[in-house]
Amino acid sequence: MAFVTTSAPASQIAPRIGRFLARPFVAFWNLLILMAESTPRMEAVRALNAQSDGDLAARGTTRADEVRRIFGDRIH
């Protein structure tokens, strides 16, 4: 004889409720990250990361100098 349970145990229901309640906060956090990553500074950082140290040396600059140029008014 087999027994069949049609309801989920409470231990499986609680995480679902937690994930459901956390959705607005996760969405808001993802929006903040999207906004931060879409700034011109981040575009410049992506372009800098795509360049090799040899390319930067050929231009007569270093990675640290470029970071200072990009974030000049934000870091000290």
The N- to C-terminal Cα distance equals: 74 Å
| Helical residue percent band | 55-70%
- The averaged pLDDT comes out at 85
**What's the count of strands?**
0
What pattern of helices and strands is seen along the backbone? HHHH
Strand content: under 5%
Separate helix tally? 4
Structural description of this entry:
- The protein is mainly α.
- It has one domain (12-70).
- The protein has 4 helices and no strands.
- The protein has helices spanning 10-37, 40-50, 53-58, 63-70.
- The N and C termini lie far apart (74 Å).
- The model has no long low-confidence stretch (mean pLDDT 85).
Layout of helices and strands:
Elements: H1 10-37, H2 40-50, H3 53-58, H4 63-70
Helix pairs in contact: 2-4
Short description:
This protein has 76 residues and is an all-alpha fold. The protein has helices spanning 10-37, 40-50, 53-58, 63-70.
List keywords for this structure.
76 residues, mainly alpha, 70% helix
